Amino acid sequence: MKKILRITGEVSKKAACRHVLTAQDGEVVTIGPETRTQQQNRLLHPLLTDISKKAKWMGKPRSMLQWKVIMVSAHAIATGEPNEMVIGIEGEVVNLRESTAAMSKKRFASLVDYVIAWGAMNGIVFSEPDC
């Protein structure tokens, strides 16, 4: 059974240690910043869908997933994150961008803010979020 413990102080640190001491061989422990929430996750795709219905990039309509790639890449540049373009296996240009699934809550919130700001500056009227 998967256990997720949020470290909030000494008591939770000791509880985490107890769980590690009783873990079975082969189990995995990961400690790091909390990743995006389900509520955040449910917000990004509708925003990008709205953009995909109302905006073009490089003179063409783009899908929600294409807008996701465009926005994640732009957000990385805007926030000073490194970017790398490489030539792919079939000779295509590949942007080695960060994964939204691995983003911290804070980083993901920054991405959502960036998408909303870009939309506002480009005349996008967003639908009401479901979350």
Approximate strand percentage: 5-15%
What's the end-to-end separation, in Å?
Answer: 28 Å
Low-confidence stretches: none
Number of strands: 4
- The main sheet orders its strands as 1-2
The computed structural class is mainly alpha
What does this structure look like?
The protein has helices spanning 10-21, 38-54, 64-78, 105-121; strands spanning 56-57, 60-61, 85-87, 93-95. With 131 residues, it is mainly alpha-helical. The strands form 2 sheets. Strands 1-2 form a two-stranded antiparallel sheet. β1 and β2 (60-61) form a beta hairpin. α2 (38-54) crosses α3 and α2 (38-54) runs parallel beside α4 (105-121).
Brief summary:
This protein is mainly α.
What descriptive keywords fit this protein?
single chain; 131 residues; mainly alpha; two-stranded antiparallel sheet; 4 strands; elongated
Helix-strand layout with pairing:
Blueprint: H1 10-21, H2 38-54, E1 56-57, E2 60-61, H3 64-78, E3 85-87, E4 93-95, H4 105-121
Antiparallel strand pairs: 1-2, 3-4
